[in-house]
Write a structure and sequence with these properties.
The protein is an alpha/beta fold. The protein has two domains: 282 residues, Rossmann fold, CATH 3.40.50; 194 residues, N-(1-d-carboxylethyl)-l-norvaline Dehydrogenase, domain 2 (Orthogonal Bundle), CATH 1.10.1040. 46% of the residues lie in helices and 10% in strands. The chain has a five-stranded parallel sheet with strand order 6-3-2-7-8, sandwiched between helices. The protein has a three-stranded mixed sheet with strand order 5-4-11, sandwiched between helices. A hairpin with a 4-residue loop joins β4 and β5. The relative contact order is 0.10.
């Protein structure tokens, strides 16, 4: 192999792949993004890069940020290569690469978050975006309100100038902007939460109200928090992904692989302006809710349909799950009969067309998206993605047999062992509690539904509770294959091409 080119501004001209055609030295910041993972760089950063390639949005460059110690490792990698990223698109037909460069800096990670607060207080920053995972918004699991009693929130209320959380840092920065006579920034969540903008507003305004009601009122009246729906599968980076970059002659410590599909639907509510993302494929809509409902219910809930049983049966990736006739039959039947009927169409796409699209995307063998990654944080993902569908189907008098089976398979996974006897490593912030309850549920299935912070009153919903207990008992008595066969039949196929 020829000598690899270490990624940097100085080496861009040596690359043989598509690369920034804009002058990166002329870029000025307009966005702070908190939580610089693979998804952000394959999605939001890519849209901005495409605008910059056409000569626009050069004053909207991204400054990366984080609030947890583990963010420091990504910061070190990206700064060492001038915040450039190689994106490798894994289309089933071919693999292609490009280098993007809309990020120009990555803030230091410090206790008290002083660098982050100072950056967001700068009036040049007009948008603050974030990908901090669904469990990062301090949502009370029972009433879905703001969890004001969380220790990190209590800390931020008591120490508003040296906060621990993203929201504490945002409140501190907004205070500085108000006191200096500047307007607020737009806060935009890019996480998979229904009404993610409203949830972000709830977190920021609620925390501000705990220390400064006047500031909370100013934020609520003047700042904007648009809802958005985001979609692009970007697996975690490991040795295989690093080797893919090397195959293009590039040494990139933070390469990102992604599928050949992106979608971004945004509510057009930006108090301090925005890039023209719609010129490069983003959709601005007054009905983000319909798009996010389709995506969260069919794709995100669909991930949980596959990944939990995939872990128990030792299927390494989502594509492996789709290649398993029993698992893919479960996916097809529960999507067709229970999930798609709880979804409304959006312009240009019916629910069943979207199911077919997701089947094709999940089946792409080039996308090494592990079941472990997808199954992570099930206590947040089942609560946010799956259980709202259960409630809707029960209210409509629709079937919930398949969804009850999905929950039983999650309970089986949380017991902590696969059917081959190997251990499933801890994979949830509540793992110890979940495992303890899952082991009790081996003989008393109803114990699992007794977790009110997850299931609320669903334990009293007899069609769901009875089906769940029956499925979990069958899983422990005869195994997952028996349950899947009983539900979907031994030869049912997904119908995908």
């Amino acid at each position: 192999m020829d000598e690899l080119t270490a990624l940097s501004d100085a080496t861009l001209d040596r690359l043989t792949v598509e690369r920034p055609r804009y002058d990166r030295q002329a870029l000025t910041p307009g966005i702070v993004h908190i939580g610089v993972g693979n998804f952000h760089r394959a999605h939001q950063a890519w849209y901005l890069h495409r605008l910059m390639q056409s000569g626009e949005a050069l004053d909207w460059a991204i400054v990366g940020a984080g609030v947890r110690p583990f963010d420091a490792a990504m910061r070190e990698k990206l700064l060492a290569q001038d915040c450039l990223t190689t994106l490798i698109q894994l289309d089933p037909a071919q693999v292609s690469a490009e280098v993007i460069g809309p990020m120009i800096d990555y803030l230091p990670i410090e206790d008290g978050n002083a660098p982050l607060i100072a950056a967001m207080a700068d009036p040049a920053i007009r948008i603050v975006t974030m990908t901090i995972t669904e469990s990062g918004y301090f949502i009370d699991p029972v009433d879905k309100g703001f969890d004001a009693g969380h220790p990190d929130i209590l800390h931020d209320a008591e120490h508003p100038r040296t906060p621990r959380t993203v929201f504490g840092a945002m409140v501190a920065a907004l205070r500085l902007r108000r006191d200096a006579g500047h307007g607020p920034f737009t806060g935009m969540s890019c996480d998979n939460l229904q009404g993610n903008g409203a949830i972000l507003r709830q977190a920021v305004v609620s925390l501000a109200r705990m220390t400064d009601p006047d500031l909370a009122g100013w934020i609520d009246a003047n700042a904007t928090f648009p809802n958005s729906m985001v979609d692009c599968i970007a697996p975690a980076t490991g040795p295989r992904e690093l080797a893919l970059a090397e195959a293009f002659g590039i040494k990139d410590a933070a390469v990102v692989t992604h599928e050949a599909y992106r979608q971004w639907v945004i509510e057009d509510a930006f108090c301090a302006g925005r890039p023209k993302w719609d010129k490069v494929g983003a959709v601005f809509s007054d009905d983000v809710h319909a798009y996010e409902t389709m995506k969260i219910r069919i794709l995100n809930a669909g991930h949980q349909v596959l990944s939990n049983v995939g872990e128990v049966l030792g299927r390494h990736t989502i594509a492996d799950c789709m290649a398993d006739p029993l698992i893919s039959a479960l996916f097809s039947k529960v999507q067709t009969e229970e999930i798609a009927p709880a979804v409304a169409p959006v312009p240009g796409m019916t629910p069943m067309e979207y199911v077919s699209l997701i089947e094709r995307r999940f089946s792409n063998p080039r996308i090494v998206d592990t079941t472990r990654r997808v199954a992570f944080d099930g206590s947040a993902r089942h609560t946010g993605f799956v259980l709202p569908i259960v409630r809707d189907r029960l209210a409509a008098g629709g079937p919930v047999e398949g969804l009850a089976l999905v929950e039983a398979l999650w309970a089986r996974m949380c017991e902590g062992t696969r059917e081959d006897g190997t251990d499933i490593a801890a994979n949830d912030p509540l793992w110890e509690d979940l495992t303890a309850v899952a082991r009790t549920a081996k003989t008393t299935p109803a114990a699992w539904l007794g977790q009110r912070r997850i299931y609320g009153d669903l334990a009293e919903a007899q069609p769901f509770a009875d089906a769940f207990c029956r499925w979990l008992a069958l899983i422990w008595e005869q195994g997952c294959a028996a349950a899947l066969t009983t539900y979907a039949g031994p030869s049912r196929q997904t119908g995908r091409t």
